[in-house]
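Now for one protein, fold included:
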Amino acid sequence: MSALRKAQWLYDNAEPEDDSVHQEAIQAWIEDKAEQLVGGADVLVRQRFGPPVGIRQDQFVSKVAEHLRALQEAEQDDLNALALLLLQAVTGGPVKNLVEEVVGQSDHSRGTLFEIAQSMLEPYAQAGIEADAEDAEL
């Protein structure tokens, strides 16, 4: 086989590079930052040039409110659950178990709020990993 044919054969039959480690790092970054966002913190990624980018808490709150409006418009909201949530919050009762009833069920393992947070963070994951790597080098 000539060198040109061999090179063409190698090119045609090349396997894609395994990027599973990179994909796992992206998923871990998104999950970590979603935890912070749901916990009340801004998630901002430092850029080399320009101001930080990311999701501020008020943007996340707006997205959750948008989700609640969509539930209401689809008549899938549970006002009794919302009223109970408010009453429990005022009296210092357990409110965590009522959240899913108010925001709706999700296939996400951590619930609807984390699903919303992660979808908002996905566009910033690559830049976030790169910024974290740069910070680790310093």
